Amino acid sequence: MRRVMLALVSILLMAGTAARHPGLHAQRAEPTIQYRLSFPEPQHRWMQVEVLFQGLAPDTLELRMSRASPGRYSLHDFAKNVYDVHAFAADGRELATTRPDPYGWNVSGHGGRATMKYKVYGDRVDGTYLAIDTTHAHINMPAAIMWARGLDDRPISIEFVPPPGKEYNSRRDVPWHVMSQLEPSRNAPSNTVLGYAAPNLQYLMDSPVEFGDTAVRSFNVDHTTFRFVFHGEATSAELESLVADVEKVVRQEGAVFGEYPKYEPGYYTFLADYVPWAQGDGMEHRNSTVMTGTTTIAGDRISILDTVAHEFFHCWNVERIRPKGLEPFDFERANLSGELWLAEGFTQYYGPLMLQRAGLVDVGATAETMTGFVEAVSGPAHLVRSAEEMSRMAAFIDGGRTEDKTNWSITTTSYYSFGGAIALALDLTLRDRTDSRVSLDDYMRAMWRTYGKPGGSREGYVDHPYTMMDAESTLAAVSGDQAFARDFFKRFIQGHEIPDYARLIARAGFVLRKRNPGGAWLGDLRLTARNGVRVAGLIAPTWPVYRSGLEQDDVVQKIDGRPISNESDVSSVLRHHKPGDSVSIEFTDRTGRATTATVGLIEDPHIDIVPTESVDSSLTDAQQAFRRQWLGAR
Ligand SMILES: [Zn+2]
Fold it and tell me: Using CB atoms within 10 A of its CB, is residue 16 exposed (0-12), middle (13-18) or buried (19+)?
């Protein structure tokens, strides 16, 4: 396949956007913080950073590398890849630095002006880290930028110096250019340095940059410009057909809210980085998103569109309709929010729904998505952690690492699927109560009008973030029923109940049925061969086999008197039984103690959701109408 060459449209698009917020800039008298990022040896995956701080108070300058990154909820300690750190005074004299903790450098005696120089290594293409190679610099700012405490609101300039041969006017090679939500600086760019500006630290940190040889396509909807930046292997035709589908998603999501946010640079940018050495990821920002993965457009366009649909929905939900716990973003510690079931979970629900409304997937795919949500929320974890409590686990489970063992496999459900299941129940409940006159779209629009649209008095901030109470009052207002709203939050978000999905989806012509009807079940026992046949996962308290005392790493010898050597042996034993039967189990624990116990079998609880018409009967007129209102194009 042919590599897509860079489109000049990007440069045209940016012309004239530079001096957009004169009011915001004019009030500031504080000197600009100046960054310069250069890439002398991209093949070795490091970049050189220089940053100039001026007009400093005489106290110690406290420089920090972030421990967290906007959109990620766990800690990452970006200081670990920083090295060759030096500080200089105005006269060029090197200043001593001290280390107050592992994440910072202190500089005293700077005389009001200090320049920091350091290198930072990065080789991970995703939404959180830094990646540098001969094809691009993929920059997530918190992974790259050293900043100073107390200077958060100073304006910032940031310059990008391409590797040798990749200059703006290069005749040798395809030049690198900067794609991001940063605004081009008002100073005329030179041929070798590309200048951009940010109003403050929060905005800079939220502005990922793709610096390289990228292809750009753009389109307009409702007088708003959307840019799709692609780095990867694709033909022009593949890219254009993908972007045509991106536009369909953008239109459907705009219809949910009735309008697009006012994107500060004047446009929204998708930064798509699909190279064989990438990690699969998507990360939302105020006016852009980073999407990464190893797939190609030809290989799996739906997975790319699925990421588009999720991340773009975030430009309302999270970036502007923002939980109070995430505002402002704290770069030194993990933010805590009990509302991620709404911030992430409702976004996880709307992503696939928007693909359906855009006509990019069929009802079978929507049924599979619903199956995933309902299966996730029906597992053992919901009994011990509510959706609110699950949201508060984000700092540990969102890309966080643990050395010790946890029992999360049976005590946590991701707030993505848990929240997706809540959104599904709430959308269908609202429709069910009102004959489709009120839906979750109305709820999202109400949240947008109250908490998102008013925006922020400072760029990059949200002035009216919401609390759990606000989310509940908005439901009371939209449904016109305060008791209903309280009951729904109490039972399904702060409590441990599961909505009646079978009844709710039946109204739209879907059937919830047992995956293995009449099948005997003792739990989702996983086995592995390692010094005997061992239990490979934790045993949940809701499984019949739990009470036998069997646990992870125990060696299973026999079930129902038959020797067991793998999982299919267990299945063949169960096939000879029905729910209500009992079987014996023989196993040895880690101390060598042998146990024989009896397990009472129950019916396999796993379910599938399928469109009614795929089972037997056709849809009634009422089901057809309900489904069209819910899943039909806007
Ligand atoms: Zn998300």
Answer: exposed
Nearest CA to 246 out of 353, 349, 360 is that of: 360
Query: Mean pLDDT throughout 180-184?
Result: 95
For residue 312, the CA-to-ligand 1 centroid distance in Å is 9
58-115 pLDDT, tens digit each: 999 999 999 999 999 889 999 999 999 999 999 999 999 999 999 999 999 999 999 9
How far, in Å, from the CA of 316 to the mean position of ligand 1? 11
- Residues 445-504: tens digit of each pLDDT: 999 999 999 999 999 999 999 999 999 999 999 999 999 999 999 999 999 999 999 999
* Alpha carbon of 344 to ligand 1 centroid (Å): 5
* DSSP structure string for 581-598: -EEEEEEE-TTS-EEEEE
What element of type H or E holds 444?
Answer: helix 440-447
Tokens of residue 278, six digits:
């990438």
| pLDDT over 70, % of the chain | 94
Chain mean pLDDT for the chain:
93
Residue where the block lists tokens 């490091």? 46
> Distance between CA 252 and CA 73 in Å, rounded?
28
Give the pLDDT score at 169: 73
Lowest mean pLDDT among 67-81, 97-111, 168-182, 559-573: 168-182
Largest CA distance in the chain: 86
Taking Cα atoms as reference points, which of 604, 582, 590, 587 lies closest to residue 550? 587
68 CA to middle of ligand 1, Å? 16
How many Å lie between the centroid of ligand 1 and the Cα of residue 348?
7
- Cα 270 to ligand 1 centroid, rounded to whole Å: 14
* Strands 209-212 and 194-198, bridge-based pairing: unpaired
Give φ, ψ of 321 to 5 degrees. Answer: -85, 95
Alpha carbon of 143 to ligand 1 centroid (Å): 19
State which H helix or E strand residue 268 sits in. strand 267-274
Rounded to the nearest angstrom, the distance between the alpha carbon of 230 and the centre of ligand 1 is: 20
Residue 376 Cα to ligand 1 middle (Å): 17
346 Cα–ligand 1 center, Å: 9
